[in-house]
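From the methods appendix. Each design record in this collection lists the tokenized structure first, followed by the designed amino acid sequence. Records were kept in a plain field format so they could be parsed without special tools. The example shown here is representative of the layout used throughout.

RECORD:
FOLD TOKENS (473 positions):
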């Protein structure tokens, strides 16, 4: 046996220990915690595939061993443990599970009727108090069609009507009755913010903001309030040791947070304070380069970090600054021109954001249809770069746009996004190069469980909502 990547389970154990040792923040205490439990899984050896690890490696005739829901080893000549399921994958390709960092499945589910429109709380320009997870309808058929496209994890975000739209949540793409049963354990929340035209359009005829300068004033006012809230709630050395509202489960010894350090709890400011503290990751809908630069200055003013700019059709204009600041660009392959702020998009955008040494380019969907073929959206980027004379982008580099880089921006790279020993066994077996127009996800594994199989109808989950409905001829 000549293993190529065998790091043991040390990484996963270290991350679990570190997580357990981290105290719950008063601003990110979760009264609706994940109840996700991995499905029962078999020990599985996927053999003789072309493997894209998501770390920049392409390994030929390579095996992937899955044990106890985790990647046990990636290498050549691996031996199948007794009783293991062996998948003969010669001529096939294996990648990490695909991750979509910008989805509205569940909050804008299918059928797309008004009764299902739960993604935008358009009652105030700043609604940091709302959480997208509380709108998620788990019966959305879109989750299952996304699974057939290899999607194993996804971030569900509020819409972009508001300056601050609220918290987003990362899910594992498994069938469930409650959103908590899909909630990625230990994943940080995202904070959805929006620049430019959308807040102006929604609030320009209401209370405002009506201009881009009004937008920025609105962000600043919100974060000024959050900064004062942080200072008011900072632990004081002379405070007696006692349980706070954020440490108590339901049924605690006080009816509310009155009397705790800082006084009354504020759900909006909890979220903004969590973002300033770096506990909630900031994801910003922002198209124009000048506005992205302004938002980076805003982040510096108030001490928070931008995890990613989403949509960013002009991200190519400041690719070097994004890379220097460690900010990802979560972008479309070729959407552009559908409104003024999207006018200056180019098809080489993602390839240019990916070019700097520390560049973090991500292909996202923002679409219940596009999420089903995120691999082919990435393939468009490869083709656009080639036509522009940028050379061929290798599959082992491009796969990071929909796996490792996506996991990095969501704060879950220590658990998923790459095929490395110790990580969650979120794996896709493709019939061929995933960047071919003929590529299909044949098998999809989440935490080692084969949750989708194109050749086995019993492993093609259907939404309860669709059960009993006739299939169109």
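DESIGN:
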């Amino acid at each position: 046996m000549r293993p190529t990547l065998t790091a043991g389970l040390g990484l996963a154990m270290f991350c679990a220990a570190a997580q357990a040792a981290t105290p719950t923040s008063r601003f990110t205490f979760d009264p609706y915690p994940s109840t996700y439990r991995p499905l029962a899984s078999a020990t599985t050896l996927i053999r003789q595939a072309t493997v894209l690890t998501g770390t920049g490696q392409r390994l030929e005739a390579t095996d992937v061993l899955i044990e106890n829901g985790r990647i046990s080893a990636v290498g050549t000549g691996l031996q199948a443990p007794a009783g293991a399921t062996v998948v003969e994958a010669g001529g096939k390709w294996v990648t990490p599970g695909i991750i979509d960092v910008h989805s509205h499945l569940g909050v804008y589910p299918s059928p797309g009727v008004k009764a299902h429109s739960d993604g935008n709380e358009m009652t105030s320009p700043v609604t940091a108090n709302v959480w997208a997870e509380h709108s998620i309808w788990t019966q959305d058929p879109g989750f299952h069609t996304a699974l057939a496209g290899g999607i194993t994890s996804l971030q569900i975000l509020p819409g972009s009507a508001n300056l601050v739209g609220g918290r987003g949540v990362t899910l594992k793409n498994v069938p469930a009755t409650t959103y908590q049963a899909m909630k990625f354990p230990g994943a940080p929340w995202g904070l959805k913010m929006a620049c430019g035209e959308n807040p102006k359009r929604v609030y320009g005829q209401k209370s405002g903001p009506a201009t881009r300068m009004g937008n920025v004033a609105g962000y600043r006012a919100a974060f000024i309030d959050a900064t004062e809230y942080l200072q008011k709630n900072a632990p004081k050395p002379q405070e007696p040791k006692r349980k706070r509202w954020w440490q108590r489960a339901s049924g605690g010894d006080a009816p509310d947070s009155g009397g705790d350090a800082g006084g009354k709890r504020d759900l909006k400011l909890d979220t903004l304070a969590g973002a300033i503290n770096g506990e909630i990751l900031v994801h910003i809908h922002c198209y124009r380069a000048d506005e992205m630069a302004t938002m980076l200055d805003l982040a510096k003013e108030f001490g928070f970090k931008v995890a990613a700019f989403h949509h960013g059709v002009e991200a190519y204009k400041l690719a070097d600054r994004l890379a220097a600041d460690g900010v990802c660009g979560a972008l479309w392959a070729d959407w552009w021109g559908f409104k003024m702020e999207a006018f200056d998009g180019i098809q080489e955008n993602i390839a240019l954001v990916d070019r700097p040494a520390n560049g973090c380019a991500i292909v996202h969907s923002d679409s219940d249809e596009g999420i089903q073929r995120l691999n082919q959206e990435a393939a468009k980027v490869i083709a656009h770069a080639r036509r522009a004379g940028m050379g061929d982008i290798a599959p082992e580099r491009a796969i990071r746009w929909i796996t490792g880089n996506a996991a990095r921006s969501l704060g879950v790279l220590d658990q998923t996004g790459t095929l490395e020993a110790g990580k969650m066994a979120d794996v896709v077996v493709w019939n061929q190069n995933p960047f071919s127009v003929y590529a299909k996800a044949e098998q999809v594994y989440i935490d080692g469980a084969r949750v989708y199989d194109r050749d086995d109808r019993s492993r093609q989950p259907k939404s309860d909502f669709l059960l009993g409905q006739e299939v169109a001829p």
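APPENDIX NOTE: DSSP finds eleven helices and 17 strands in the chain.
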